[in-house]
Amino acid sequence: MTVRIGVLALQGDVREHRRALEEVGAATSAVRTVADLAAVDAIVIPGGESTTMSRLLGVFDLYDPLRAALAGGLPAYGSCAGMILLASEVLDTRPDARCLAAIDMTVRRNAFGRQVDSFETDLHVAGIDGAPVRAVFIRAPWVERVGDGVDVLARVPAEAGESAGTVVAVQQGVTLATSFHPEVTGDLRIHEHFLSMVRRG
Ligand code: GLN
């Protein structure tokens, strides 16, 4: 059976996620309306700018429906700004920015930015077999607290200096979030992992 994964298409790197999802065998569609949301088996929230996406969720009347769909068990994956939106608490954001509370975690926005804006590193990600995952971080958040029931999938390795040990990939049930952007590297294993989560339900 074909799985249809929606990509929230208000802002951000929507096209890159759709391409990666299609390459691993999902059908995809852009989600901008409640009707679009109702037509998908899962949703990806792309990288971009979380405060802008938060504002646009309000403008497009999607905030409440999306939050309710996530609370009702719609599988979701958020990368970077998408991770911020899936959090239950966000530090260093605008006071009016809202998040969707799909994962019980506290995320600090632009956390690495205090040291360096963007960087790449190889990560061991739990559940992803084979070579380490090449992770691209662009003004990325990190995870400062996870609740019970949240699995930590990856931490920044020791070579990364000051930020070593920081949590950068988590999963709670059918919801996945990464600080980094697998959609820009051509390594499809994170998208494959998400698709198998959606298939398992
Ligand atoms: N810094 C951005 C934010 O706060 C996230 C950056 C990204 O998605 N690459 O939303």
Structural features, described:
With 201 residues, the protein is of the alpha/beta class. It has one domain (4-200): Class I glutamine amidotransferase (GATase) domain (Rossmann fold). The protein has helices spanning 14-23, 34-38, 50-59, 63-71, 81-86, 189-200; strands at residues 4-8, 27-31, 42-45, 76-79, 87-91, 103-108, 118-123, 133-138, 142-146, 151-155, 167-172, 175-178. Strands 2-1-3-4-12-11-10 form a seven-stranded mixed β-sheet. A three-stranded mixed β-sheet has the order 5-6-9. It is globular, with a radius of gyration of 15 Å. The chain starts with a strand and ends with a helix. The structure holds glutamine (GLN). Glutamine binds at residues 47-50, 80-81, 84, 109-110, 138-139.
DSSP E strands, number: 12
Q: What structural class should be given to the helix and strand makeup? A: alpha/beta
> Which ligands does the model contain, each kind named once?
glutamine
What characteristic shape results from the CA principal axes? globular
Question: What is the rounded Rg?
Answer: 15 Å
* Low-pLDDT runs: none
Strand content: 25-35%
Q: In this structure, how is the largest beta sheet organized?
A: 7 strands, mixed
| Order of strands across the main sheet | 2-1-3-4-12-11-10
Average predicted local confidence, pLDDT: 95
Q: Kindly report the CATH topology.
A: Rossmann fold
